[in-house]
């Protein structure tokens, strides 16, 4: 919404009407990688959804075995509606699996469920990146709102002659600062996700829940899922770069005034 307003405003030179700037092209890598990652995930996920695991375990049963083997009997597993809504909630210390992965007895279901159990294992072992990520959540919630508001407001103010140029750019700098926190959050997410997947693959094999061939299928599904996190980081980095370019452009214009 703020982005649309910003475009209409024709940032950063003021005046209504869309103006093209070269940095608008910076959104392209993130969008393309994001689309590729989504396609890759949905094709890999649905392909292995068709392939049952030899021992007939459902996602919920496989996750239960992984959790129990780690002494995490107190971690409950709940079913949630939606497609790929699976997650581990560290505040509730509980696993939430989407209906198809909770009841599904496929390589995809078992892989995703074991991945979420992997987060519970990280939590138990006080895995540092997980804790860093958890501690960032409240800050990120505020930053994700504040960044856009501060940056857009800063752009508008910097286009108004009556307002001293410093006010606008200061707000834009605050916006960039808040946005960096979000980019950093996407970066911290990567080791957390990759590590949960490697724990899942290891535990499934060690506990004899999947065969070596099935484990390769699990690996394909989880790598495809991990790519969406890489895409999110890429999009965030390029957006940040774009904001920095806009800020620099406003700063150099102000110097000319
Ligand atoms: Zn995860």
Task: Supply database-style keywords.
257 residues, mainly alpha, three-stranded mixed sheet, 8 helices, 5% strand, elongated, binds zinc ion
The residue ranges in which pLDDT falls below 50 over 5 or more consecutive positions are: none
**Small molecules bound in the structure, each named once:** zinc ion
Number of folding domains? Answer: 1
Encode the helix/strand succession as letters. Answer: HHHEEEHHHHH
Beta-strand segment tally: 3
Strand content: 5-15%
Indicate the structural class.
Answer: mainly alpha
Describe this structure in words.
The structure is a single chain. The mean pLDDT is 91. The chain has one domain (2-52, 124-256). The chain is mainly alpha-helical and 257 residues long. The protein is elongated and about 70 Å long. The protein contains eight helices and three strands, in the order αααβββααααα. A three-stranded mixed beta sheet has the order 1-3-2. Zinc ion binds next to helix 5 and helix 7.
